[in-house]
Amino acid sequence: MRHVDEYRDAGLAQGLIEGIRRSAVGPLKFMEVCGSHTVAIFKSGIRDLLPDSISLVSGPGCPVCVTSVEDVDKAVEIARQPGVILATFGDMVRVPGSYTNLQKAKAEGADVRVVYSPFDALTMAEENPDKKVVFFAAGFETTSPAVAATLGRAVEGGTSNFLIFSSHKTIPAAMRALLDTPALLIDGFLCPGHVSTIIGTRPYNFIADEYKKPAVVSGFEPVDILQSVLMMVRQVEEGRPAVDIQYRRAVSEEGNPKAVETLYRYFRPSDSNWRGIAVIPGSGLKLRDEYAAHDAEKVLDIKTAEPREVKGCSCGEVLQGIKTPPECRLFGKACTPESPVGACMVSYEGSCAAYYKYGRR
Amino acid sequence: MCVGIPGKVLSMEGRMAVVEVGGATRQVALDLLDGVSLGDYVIAHAGFAIHKVDEDEALKTLDILREITEAMQGGGETCAT
Q: What's the pTM?
């Protein structure tokens, strides 16, 4: 068993689709919150296999896409400072800020480097003791514990030139904000798989308890997603909203307590600005005061001009599932993966990039 | 960005392990996960192992999936949960 191929079986998928088709409920609109789900859904053509009564909309779960313009501006300003190496994940260098992005700043001489793991940035700090290495940290609860553990190693090893600029966000607070958005009527959530590996399912209980909507934590293979949709359909049929786990091989109710403990040892909740959406209270993570010596926002003097949103871009509405990408007037014209205007076109996991690459349903 | 791929633990030294994912090997840190043994499948993300794949639960999920498929082929009813 390799825990991958088993969930790509066409026979199993056929059975699940038949199960969903036989259901009499609908119309139903489910949101897949996670960008990795969006990619998996488009790649496998799941939207085309579902009956017309069941639609899937993409949510705000691409960390690159929801990074605010002002955080990109700050990262650019940090990267331009002398004696600084700015390290970050791949797609982050192309996200537009108010006036420029990290890739252009690099072309103009800033030392911007792409890393696969925050660990690589720590190694960079150890190898460059005369520089400050700032890790521009974006990502949800899947990623933030890795950054916390890396900071733990920096503290332990006395690597004082390793700094973090945190743009981390947390998912459940955003899901509540979406449920409170009048323009968006969602009948259930396909909950993120690997965020849930860390946080477990309890943080989602409000979806079923307070809003009476189904929520199913799903795996990432086509059969996983189809089974999750069927589980949500069954919940609606039975009038039994609940938080269920389809992705049992990787998710338990309690999650990964060690990762959560590590995360909150170094980070504290903060308000956070979700690009094009709003400042959502308690939906971000900043370093705890004890670790101020590793907090780029406290150690460095970062001055930026008033942030400016990108004109004509509908990313905010796309991220909330209010608009589909083709409903944005820039889509496929001024905004393409080669020359992205909005963040949703930058990231491989962005809804606009997925629509552009795989089709437009 | 939350992609995590199951890989098999080939060797371990201190807080680091070498895992095999689809034929390639890579190093992952074990700071966020206790109780990892050689031969386990772990889900790795951003250079850290974040979960040990539960083989029993994986088998149970596959059983449920097969039941659904059989029920659909036979025209009967079943429960996905």
A: 0.91
